[in-house]
């Protein structure tokens, strides 16, 4: 299998991970990234839950994330009046995951791929595909092309690969919410190790975490009409967003207004889309993984972890099942139920955040402590304790 070539479209999270695993499976992978160069400071931050950390451990990069990230053990909820509503998790219990800057995770995975001798080409925006049963040719907008025995689309929720191989697939669904956030320093906030603070504000939700060096990672969610694109939102000047967000949380209890006021970093603004179910995950020698086929909203903190799980499982199926079509079919069979359940679960969390009508707020704050107690008792082991071992053989 040593001369079989794998074309990997996208160099975010899933791309380098699947490239490394496919190399271990005997393929020669090459990664093609649409952006002109890597940006280790792009984006905000994300959570790698403990199921995702297991995959990073298999890749040999988990220690870097543990050192750089913010340890997550509990979520603590407050109302806009300052009333403590409850917590989920256990401060003395198992670490649930690590919150890390997205650009840093990209950097760690990209460097791991390069250390494995995997070539990465930037400025390669996919234009078209030509496929037979045994070969795929990728054509890029710069006029170049590449041939491979299989192709993996890891190019995100608005995947060009998905549109090419599954032209009748549904488009991602807009959840009705946008997410925004940034990084602040110099705010007098007591640091509670392992705690993510969640505030149900008068007009919008607000969350923040405090790193050991005092840097604050914060985010908010807001109902927003239409079907905005990220480009449209980011075309609005930063000064306008700062004013909108400052007004949104004006009158909230500290430290929320101070965190926003002392944010000197760029404020990122993103529409939240998800993709619950697509009828097929592959076509011919091309297959999709991660957000390209089952994008989830950030509420459950599972997007990165699911992409990493996909990468390991797909490579195992390709390694152990001789027929490529059968390997893809089995991969989809093993993953579909789990990922669709998590995408639906994550969307349901987002819908519960946004009560703004006074009556809705009253009943939410009244009932939420009971719901949180129930959630603490209910096990989410089905999500966090999922395990897939690289050394176990896949059987059909």
UniProtKB/TrEMBL annotation:
Pfam family name, one: FAD_binding_3
Coiled coil: none
Record keywords: Monooxygenase, Oxidoreductase
Domain FAD-binding: start-end pairs: 6-316
Molecular function (Gene Ontology), one example: FAD binding
Family matches, as InterPro entries: FAD-bd, FAD-dep_Monooxygenase_BioMet, FAD/NAD-bd_sf
Protein name listed in UniProt: FAD-dependent oxidoreductase
Organism: Brevibacillus aydinogluensis
